[in-house]
Predict the 3D structure of the following.
Amino acid sequence: MYWEDGNIHIEEDDECITCENLQKGIACPLILAIAQGAVYIEDSLNVINCGFYKKFERHLKLVVPVDNISLD
Ligand code: SF4
């Protein structure tokens, strides 16, 4: 993770890539703190073993194909 040109950049080796908090954006306390200027990243950091990490899991719903719906 690094800060450049007013943006936070997440890299492939950061734990954030599979974190639910990143999917929700501002739900990440670290990203929120950086965005608010409370925390400053001087160079770059590799995010591992983050205490706020939540594994992102997709929740898919099955959709019935239109052909199987009766309009009688
Ligand atoms: S909670 Fe931790 S692992 Fe998740 S996005 Fe924020 S810094 Fe990354």
In short: The chain has a mean pLDDT of 87. Residues 15-16, 19, 21-22, 28, 30-31, 47, 50, 52-53 surround iron/sulfur cluster (CB under 6 Å). DSSP finds two helices and two strands in the chain. The radius of gyration is 18 Å.
